[in-house]
Every structure is written in C-alpha cells, then in structure tokens.
Design brief:
Length: 436
C-alpha cells in the first residue's frame, strides 16, 4: 500500500467522522422540532388554566366549608367538605354565617360578603363590583353582560360559577352554594359529632372525662382511628397491604428465581437448549410490565392485593433470574475446587463454594428491588391491585377532597423513605457486617 493510498483512506475516514459529528446533532434538533410541532408545545400556554391550577393547589392544603341553600325546601346547611359527618347542627354554625328573615349572609372575609335568599344571590366583589344572579322560572339571569364576563366567572342559563381567591360561588336551578376556604385539614382528628372535637390536647389529657363509658385517652384513639371522614384505620390497613404486596412479591420472586438461575448459568448448565429456554422464560415474564400483568391477573383472581403480589412476583422473577444467573457465571471456581478437594459432594460444593460468593450480590439486589417495589406496589394497587394506590386513585377520580389526595401522597412518601432506610440498615447488617 502506497503512501497515497494510506492518505486517501485516512482522509476518507476523517471526512466520515466529521459528517457523523455534524449529522447527529442535526438529527437531534430535527427530532426536537418535530416534537415541538407534533405535541403543540407552542399552544400549551394558551391552554393553561391558571385558575384551575391554583384551585387544585389550594385544595391540597386547605379545606372548604359548604354553605348550601336548597331551593325546593329552603333549608340552609353548613358542612365541612359537604360531608354528613361534618355538618354543623342548627344553632352551632360558624360566626361568619347568619340567616335572618330568609336571607343568608356568608362572610368569606372582611371585604367579600355573599348574600342569598330564595331567588337572588349577590356578591359585591372588590375590584369588580356587584354581581347578582336571579332565578327567573327555570333560568338564571345576571346583572352583567354575559359577553363581557371575566374568565373566573362561568355563566349559562342553568348555572353560574364564580371563582376568586376569597372563595367560590355556585348557583344552579336547585341550589345556591358558597365555598369558604380555610388553611389546614379540618376534622383530621375528630368529626363534629365526636365529644372530643374542639378541645385542646391539654384539656383532653388532663381535663375532666368527657365520655362516662371510657377514658379520654381511649376515646381519643377510637375517635381518631374510626374517623368517618379521613378513615385512618382503613388507610393504615391499605398501607400494610401495599408493603405486603411488595414484600411477598419480591421475596417470592427471589425464591423462585434462585434455583432457576442455576439452570440459566453457563457454568452450571452445559445443555445449551435448556439454558436458552430458561432465559427466554425470564425475558418473557420481565418483558411484560407489572401493570399489564395486574390487568391480566385481575381477570383471573379479581381485584385485591393477591393480584398485585402475583404481578410483582412474575415481573421480578424474570429480573432476578437474569441477575442471579449472571452472578453465578462470575463465581470463582477456585473456591469451589477447594471445597471439592475436601471430599464434599455436589450439594455441599454448592452450599459452601458457590452460595457464599453470590449471597452479598443477591441480597443487595433483592433489597434494592424491595425498596423499588414499594413504589411500584402503589402504582399497581391503583389498577385494581388494592392498597394505598387504590385509595389514591379513588380520591383523585372523585375530585371531592384534594387534601385527602395530598394526605395519601404524604403517607406514600413516608412509606418509601422508611423502606429506603430499612433497606439500607439490612444491607449494612447482612452484607457488610458493619454495626448500625
């Protein structure tokens, strides 16, 4: 090969490299441009509803008190989150609600006062002016031009909705409803019908006994655990189901995958057809996502934690089988030969020559997936798998109490943090042997 040939080949190779260096960024930019157009990124800001976002966020850390007047009966009820257990008894309503001569007055704050009777609802909104909705037969009319209403006022002949930072108003043919927001999670400890509601912790612990049938401490626990609005007992049970799904699914998969890992390891199973078959089984069960397994298994076993457990078990059996077989293929044969030189049989060689080498790696992977499956069990539980995920999905779908959604999310985060801490402790104790 002449010098000219070498120069020609080298120049061509450099040219191709420069072309690839320029083509890859251009391809990425072209793909990003396609995404921008295909997903209409430019129109996102136009579709953004800031008022809905703010309403949702406020619902997560505050509660609503509903003041409702039924048009047919004329009854006015005041209830926290509209719940029966949160309904104030007549004469015990908050001081910002008053009814006199058929006219109800609701003070959202010092500047926002809503008044309504059988036919007319009025709200003098600061910075906007007086808004009046009047029922005329089957229609609702406003004192404002419907064509010039701001975005935070929704109007039709059958319904009027007003959303401001001070509160909300809904007027329909059948009812008038005012929503007053307040910070916190009201009735989190006790419902309104509980004798312990409205008392300080000091008064409950050191004050007189409120229920003659039981002590204050026992009654407080019963009232909290059996709270009919927050359902703390059911939530705790659901958390236990989620952790149980992750635990049984993970360790069940590890127990099944461990012996199968020997069949998939090249140095323990010389028969290629058997290795190939076992590996393809691993690929199949882990190739189908856990959510898909949940849907399929729910047809056979119905909804519940068993379905979620089996879904995690199937998926992780494939994952563990691959990890275990690769760990077994990397064992040091010299340790096995040392055990064999003592006259040990096959089982003893496996017990004392193979397993001690792979246990740290296997336990580390099992504990890591246990931590990961705690999060996955929440998602799997949302698809008819049971547990806290199912409660979270139901709370989101109903759009009733978003503070309940935030409560579940906080519990899920604390559960994952606890499993992460426990997994780290077990790894240090079992694998490295360091004191905790």
């Amino acid at each position: 090969m002449t010098v000219a040939d070498i120069y020609t080949q080298t120049t061509g190779r450099f040219s191709r490299q420069r072309l690839m260096t320029a083509a890859i960024p251009l391809g990425v930019l072209a793909y990003l441009a396609y995404i921008f157009v295909a997903f209409d990124i430019g129109g996102l800001m136009g579709r953004l509803r800031v008022d809905n976002v703010m309403t949702l966020l406020s619902d997560t850390y505050s509660y609503k008190t509903h003041v409702t007047r039924d048009t047919r009966t004329g009854d006015v009820t005041v209830a926290i989150e509209g719940e029966r257990r949160g309904t104030y008894a007549p004469g015990t309503e908050p001081s910002w609600v008053s009814t006199l001569d058929g006219v109800t007055t609701v003070g959202l704050d010092a500047d926002n006062i809503v008044t309504f009777d059988a036919d007319t609802t009025s709200w003098d909104i600061p910075g906007y002016g007086l808004l009046t909705a009047t029922r005329s037969g089957r229609e609702i009319t406003l004192n404002r031009n419907p064509d010039t209403l701001p975005d935070w006022i929704s109007y039709s002949s059958a319904r009027v909705d007003v959303k401001t930072s001070a509160g909300r108003l809904s007027v329909t043919r059948n009812r008038t409803e005012v929503f007053r927001y307040a910070f916190g999670w009201e009735l989190f400890w006790f419902t309104l019908d509980s004798p312990y509601y409205g008392h300080s912790l000091f008064a409950l612990l050191f004050g007189p006994q409120l229920d003659p049938a039981q002590s204050n401490l026992v009654g407080m626990w019963d009232g909290f655990w059996g709270n009919a609005m927050w359902h703390h007992g059911e939530v705790a049970w659901a958390l236990g189901e989620t952790i149980l799904m992750a635990f049984l699914g993970t360790f069940g998969a590890a127990i099944i995958a461990f012996p199968l890992g020997f069949l998939a390891a090249r140095n323990f199973t010389p028969l290629a057809a058997l290795r190939f078959s076992v590996r393809r089984v691993f690929d199949f069960v882990r190739g189908v996502d856990g959510l898909i397994w949940t849907i399929l298994l729910s047809r056979a076993f119905g909804p519940g934690p068993l379905t979620g457990t089996l879904a995690i078990l199937l998926t992780d059996t494939g994952t563990f089988g691959k990890i275990f077989s690769e760990a077994l293929e990397n064992v040091d044969n010299r340790q096995i030969e040392g055990v064999q030189s003592t006259g040990a049989n096959v089982v003893q060689r496996y017990c004392f020559g193979v397993i001690p080498q792979v246990v740290p790696v296997l336990l580390s992977q099992v504990l890591y997936l246990l931590e990961s499956n705690t999060r996955s069990a929440t998602i799997i539980g949302a698809i008819t798998g049971g547990g806290i995920g199912l409660l979270l999905t139901q709370a989101i779908i109903t759009h009733k109490d978003w503070e309940e959604v935030s409560y579940y999310i906080v519990l899920i985060i604390l559960m994952v943090m606890a499993m992460d801490w426990l997994s780290g402790v077990l790894r240090r104790r079992v694998i490295s042997g360091r004191a905790v």
